[in-house]
Amino acid sequence: MVTTLGTDGTPHIAPFGIARTGDDLVIAPFRPSVTLNALEATGRAVVNLTDDARLFAGCLTGRRNWPLVPATTIAGVRLATSLAHWEVEVVRVEADPVRPRFHCRSVHEVTHGPYASHNRAAAAVIEAAILCSRLYLLPWEKVEREMAYLATAVEKTAGMREREAWGWLCDRVAAFRAEGRTRTSSIATAVR
Ligand SMILES: Cc1cc2nc3c(=O)[nH]c(=O)nc-3n(C[C@H](O)[C@H](O)[C@H](O)COP(=O)(O)O)c2cc1C
Q1: Which of 28, 96, 124, 192 is the 20 to 30 Å CA partner of 166?
Q2: Residues 126 and 104 in one domain
Q3: Tens digit of pLDDT for each residue in 13-50?
Q4: pLDDT at 116
């Protein structure tokens, strides 16, 4: 989970896959992105490590109001519940019109608590959160097929956190399907 501050000091939380390339941590947001704007403007971010799948599902379903506390050495914020966090500064940008890559270096790292492992349901929630971030791009059959597959892991292994997160994502997919139906039917009505 990446936390950033906008130029006006507004905090933002978003899940990103972080790639390690040599000493660099690479954050690669597709445009447009609030995180991208903040990285460009401030050159700083915090990478938060968490085992709470609700954070991933929450951010993809409009639930970004997670408790934050100030970072230690940079002007920034971190998730209050992070198991560990890395305060990073941008050292180089690979410019790209679609997906620039921000190479960052960690300037401060703290471990706050033990990582107790994760269950299959947490992994399924994270996969479903990625699907939800791409609903407009993916073929509908793929979304339905993958959600049905991931549901098995949730049914078998979810605790309360994963169950809640899964519910948010299922609601999001259902709302998207309903929106699509409305859009299609209004287009059909207009054509008729
Ligand atoms: C596990 C996970 C990894 C993600 N990795 C990326 C990524 O590398 N690049 C990206 O643009 N979006 C990624 N996403 C989707 C973004 O979190 C989502 O689109 C988000 O809204 C980014 O835009 P924002 O900075 O405006 O919040 C990922 C989502 C999840 C759940």
Answers
A1: 28
A2: no
A3: 999 999 999 999 999 999 999 999 999 999 999 999 99
A4: 87
Q: Tell me, yes or no, whether 88 and 143 share the same domain.
A: no
The structural domain count of the chain equals 2
| Residues lower than pLDDT 50 in the chain | 183-192
Q: Which backbone phi and psi does 158 adopt, to 5 degrees?
A: -70, 140
Our mutation pick for probing the ligand 1 site, out of 3, 5, 16, counting the most ligand atoms within 8 A of Cβ, is 16
Q: Which pair of tokens denotes residue 178? A: 């309903």
Whose alpha carbon is nearest atom 15 of ligand 1?
A: 133
Residues 94 and 134 in one domain: no
| CATH code, domain carrying 77 | 2.30.110.10
Please tell me the distance between residue 151's alpha carbon and the centre of ligand 1 in angstroms: 22
Compute how many other C-beta atoms are within 10 angstroms of the C-beta atom of residue 150: 21
Bridge partner residues of 84 (DSSP): 49, 111
Task: Dump the DSSP string for 141-164.
Answer: HHHHHHHHHHHHHHHHH--HHHHH
Give 167: exposed, middle or buried? Use CB within 10 Å, 0-12, 13-18, 19+.
Answer: middle
> In the prediction, which pLDDT does 117 show?
86
Residue after which a domain boundary falls, among 111, 144, 176: 111
Query: 28 CA distance to ligand 1 centroid (A)?
Result: 9
Helix (H, G, I), strand (E, B) or coil at 187: helix
Range of the domain at 149: 120-191
CA angle 183, 186, 191 (to 5 degrees): 125
